[in-house]
Every structure is written in structure tokens, then in C-alpha cells.
């Protein structure tokens, strides 16, 4: 496991990671949310945000994973892939939201996440400040 972790770290250093990690790092720093838990909760929200910009790649992942794609469009496969992530999260007892996020912290979390994530992360769609705050509010189920 140590060797696998080392190789993963090397890959992240070369390829960067994305908004899932940028937001997750800050939730860990603010609220001590375990990193792996944050990644699992945040992932489907960020993939939803990417929308059409990630549709082709998500559809490819749907096919590679071997899910039944009979009669599905690329968009349906992409949405299906995100749905599978949510389904697997639920099966493993991973919550849909991260409790305890305070609305007063959202602007700072967003600012720090975007500072980490922009412009270096090779993401399919850049996120603005207001979009990042809205996404964090979804993750925390803040109204």
C-alpha cells in the first residue's frame, strides 16, 4: 500500500487532480473531514457541474466499466456513470452531503479552492467563484 500511495502521489504531482481535491482539501482543513470521504462525497457534484464538457469521457468510462449501454445516448451514459457513483457511495454508507459546513465559511472555502485549482488544474470546465460557492452549498446541503 505504501508503494501504491507513492505512485499515486507521483501521478498527482505530474497530472494535478481537480476541483474535487481542491474543495476537499479545504473541507479537511476547516472541518477535519477525512480526505477519502470528502473525495467520495464531492465527486458526483463536480462531475454534474462539468456537464457537457465531460460528457464524452464519462460516457467512455460508462462503457469501460461494462454497464449496459443498450440504446443509450452519450449524454445518458455520462449521467448513468455519475448515477453509478452515487449508487456505489450509498451502498458503502457514504453520505450524500457533508454535515457541518457553515454558510459563513463558504466564500473562504471557495476562494481557497479556486486559488489551488485555477488555472493549473487540467479540468474540462473552469469554475468561477459563484459557481464554486453554489457547489459547496450543495455539498453541505445549505439552503
Walkthrough of the structure:
The protein is mainly α and 143 residues long. It has one domain: Dehydroquinate synthase-like - alpha domain (Dehydroquinate synthase-like, alpha domain). 66% of the residues lie in helices and 0% in strands. It is built from seven helices and no strands. The longest helix has 18 residues. It is globular, with a radius of gyration of 16 Å. The mean pLDDT is 93.
Please outline what is shown here.
With 143 residues, the chain is mainly α. Helices cover 66% and strands 0% of the residues. The termini are far apart.
Topology:
Blueprint lengths: L1 H14 L3 H13 L3 H16 L4 H10 L9 H18 L14 H12 L11 H11 L4
Descriptive labels:
single chain; Dehydroquinate synthase-like, alpha domain; 7 helices; mainly alpha; 143 residues
**Total count of domains:** 1
Distance between the termini: 40 Å
What gyration radius follows from the Cα positions, in whole Å?
Answer: 16 Å
- Overall shape: it is globular
Output the CATH class name.
Answer: Mainly Alpha
**Secondary-structure arrangement, i.e. CATH architecture:** Up-down Bundle
Average of per-residue pLDDT values? 93
Quantity of strands, as a count = 0
For the sheet with most strands, the description reads:
none
Strand content: under 5%
For CATH, the homologous superfamily is named as Dehydroquinate synthase-like - alpha domain
| Uncertain regions spanning at least 5 consecutive residues | none
- The number of distinct helices, counting runs of at least 4 residues, comes to 7
Amino acid at each position: 500500500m505504501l508503494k501504491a500511495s507513492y505512485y499515486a502521489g507521483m501521478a498527482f504531482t505530474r497530472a494535478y487532480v481537480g476541483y474535487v481535491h481542491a474543495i476537499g482539501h479545504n473541507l479537511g482543513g476547516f472541518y477535519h473531514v477525512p480526505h477519502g470521504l470528502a473525495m467520495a462525497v464531492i465527486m458526483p457534484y463536480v462531475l454534474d457541474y462539468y456537464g457537457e464538457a465531460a460528457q464524452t469521457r464519462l460516457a467512455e468510462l460508462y462503457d469501460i466499466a461494462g454497464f449496459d449501454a443498450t440504446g443509450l445516448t452519450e449524454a445518458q451514459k455520462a449521467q448513468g456513470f455519475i448515477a453509478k457513483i452515487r449508487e456505489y457511495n450509498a451502498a458503502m454508507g457514504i453520505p450524500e452531503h457533508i454535515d457541518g459546513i457553515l454558510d459563513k465559511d463558504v466564500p473562504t472555502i471557495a476562494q481557497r479552492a479556486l486559488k489551488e485549482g485555477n488555472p493549473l488544474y487540467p479540468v474540462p470546465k473552469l469554475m468561477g467563484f459563484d459557481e464554486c460557492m453554489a457547489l459547496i452549498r450543495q455539498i453541505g446541503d445549505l439552503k
